[in-house]
Amino acid sequence: MVQSKSQRILRALLAWFIVGLFFFPLYYWVSVAFRDAKEIFDIPPRVFNFSPTMKNFEEVFGISFGFGFGEQREVLPGGGNWYMMPRLVDSIIIAVGSTILSVSIATLAAYALSRINFRGRHHFVGWVLSTRMMPPVAVAIPMFFMFRDMGLMDTHIGIILVHGLMNLPLAVLLMKSFFDDVPTAIDESALIDGASRWFIFRKVILPMAKGGIAATAVLCFIFSWTEFLFVLTLTQTGLKTVPVVASTFVTSTGTAWGNMAALGAAAMIPAFIFILLVQKQLVRGLTLGSVKQ
Amino acid sequence: MSDVVAQRGRFWSFDRAWPWLAPMVLMLLVFTIYPLIYNVWLSFHEYVPLKRKLVNVGWDNWKTLFTDARMWASFGVTMLYFVIVLTIELVLGMALALLLDSNTLGMGFLRGLLTLTLVVPPAITGMMFLLMEDPSFGVISYYLEQLGVLSADSPILSSSETALAGVIVADVWQWTPFMVLILLAGLRSLPSEPFEAAVLDGASSWQIFRRITLPLLGKVIAVAVLIRGIDIYRMFDYVFVMTSGGPGTSTYTLSLYAWQQTFSFIKWGYGASISLFSLFVILVISNLFIKISKVRW
Asked: Which domains does chain A possess?
């Protein structure tokens, strides 16, 4: 469309302003992570003028960074109330485990849904999609009783299973869309040459869909990393992931905002890096494979 | 071709579809169908603390469900939240997508920046806005008071008129970029000929948007609305950390109400009934929507 120069500049300024508004809460949260408690509660609220400290991060990670801002402190390794390394480890184990689980199961299923004709294939895809519609609470309530009876409460394997299941519809539909991109002529000529389906899958299709598998894995990781309700319901004292434990930073004297923000900010970093790595496939992933970029 | 191959194979063969699908089907059966059946069974029972066991109560939970004022209040809140949030995110997302659909002055950078909100754990987003909407030291509250929009004696999240709006802000912040990204991808894949023809014919920007852009984007909009709609309907994290449903019932969603009945009030059977009701409603709505909009996977 034809736009004058001033119109273009105006439009760019507006875009920067609005995206800036969206970025502000992230900036503010990270800045709180670097503040001493008294600078969080000041009125009027401080936005830019605070003196940064590593205190909150040191308490959360249980290590002294030994640099920067303000005086040096003794840090108790594994000591303080806000020592959260074990919770970060829990989060990583669960996110990695459930990602491997859902991607491997989904890759197999998606190959069949993309390549092999069978009766009711269309209904099958519909069934997978409809499991994406289930409100988590409708699964979490019966799962709580199942897990209690099976001894899966408070276990990594239990949460890995649930998160793996939660991501399964996304992973299946997304992988199917990536397999659909690989021309069927490749399979057909290999089949005529006498190769088995399994051989074709491993040696031809999987290598060609590598990028798709990586994008699927990243999204599964992120959704497991950020999930709240299942972990809240299916754990009691043993393990907790970051989002759940962060929401409990409330003490009798108030909320430990600084420590909570430090934990939250630290937990966002891997997700930020991952999401920037898959920008090209992001829209396809968010729409379960139905909108291609 | 594929049909021939499928028939050629023996039963125990990777030429068949079932060995590929078996792990997924097993997983879905064990972790969705079985819990669903268990949930239905549970909804006809109730835990009696004195006897320390579940007792068959017949249709009692379902009868309660249809007469429970709090349950209908939370159904109302869920629907209100659903309509308001979906509308705001779609309209704002469309406006921003049109604004960012350009190659000048760092627009690509801005698009990348917007994706960051999507990966913040929603529970943390809830805490972020809880902090910023705090009545005494929250930035949002403070500046809204300075602007005279809010009065100092009506805290956003603990007044029943504004609490839902306080939660909606968090949702809109986190998920409008979702709409922007999807709509942008749609806009960028549109053919340029209809637009060039329309400009030659002297159509106004609004006419072009209304008569060309919107119809061509139909499918993309439908997919975005479907996926976002499902997630908005079952929203739990924001209200759980920000308001716990209060004040009164002003921010109770169905998911939260079902969860609290089960785990806070130990009404296992009743919680199961509410969660089944909520599942039923979303299945009806989304399947109707899929039929009408003809979205296909």
From this structure: 85-286 (1.10.3720.10)
pLDDT, mean of residues A251-258 = 78
**Which pair of tokens denotes residue A48?**
């830019």
Q: How many CA atoms lie within 13 A of B136 on its CB side?
A: 4
Crossing angle between the packed helical segments A279-286 and A210-226, to the nearest 10 degrees: 70
What is the distance between the alpha carbons of residues B105 and B110, in angstroms, rounded to a whole number? 9
Which structure tokens are listed for B62?
């379902």
B297 touches A at CB < 8 Å: yes
Cβ atoms within 10 Å of A144's Cβ, excluding its own: 19
Q: How far are the Cα atoms of A107, A161, A253, B287 from residue B230, in angstroms, in the given order? A: 25, 22, 38, 11
* Contact with chain B for residue A293, Cβ under 8 A: yes
Q: Which of A118, A257, A282 sits opposite B17 (nearest CB)?
A: A118
Contact B119, A275 (CB under 8 A): yes
Q: For A45, which DSSP code?
A: P
In this complex, is the C-beta atom of B293 within 8 Å of any C-beta atom belonging to chain A? Answer: no
In the Cβ-directed half-sphere of A212, how many Cα atoms lie within 13 Å? 28
| Alpha carbons B115 and B103: distance in angstroms, whole number | 18
Average pLDDT over residues A257-274: 90
Which residues of chain A are within 8 Å of residue B188 when distances are taken between CB atoms?
Answer: 293
Q: Do A130 and B283 touch (CB under 8 A)?
A: yes
Asked whether the beta carbons of A242 and A61 are under 8 A apart, the reply is no
The answer to whether B262 and A135 are in contact (CB under 8 A) is: no
d(CA A156, CA A100): 14
B182 closest CB neighbour out of A201, A227, A291:
A291
The pLDDT-based confidence of B3 (bands split at 50, 70, 90) is very low
Residue A115 has its nearest CB partner, among B2, B105, B120, at B2
Give the integer Cα–Cα distance in Å for B157 and B129.
10
ipTM of the assembly?
A: 0.89
Domains of chain B from N-terminus onward: 2-38 (no CATH), 68-128+176-293 (1.10.3720.10)
The whole-angstrom separation of Cα B173 and Cα A240 is 26
Distance CA B129, CA B125 (A): 6
- What is the pTM (predicted TM-score) of this model? 0.91
Rounded to 5 degrees, what angle do the CA atoms A240, B176, B239 make?
40
Residue B46: its H or E element: strand B45-48
A185 and chain B: CB distance < 8 Å anywhere? no
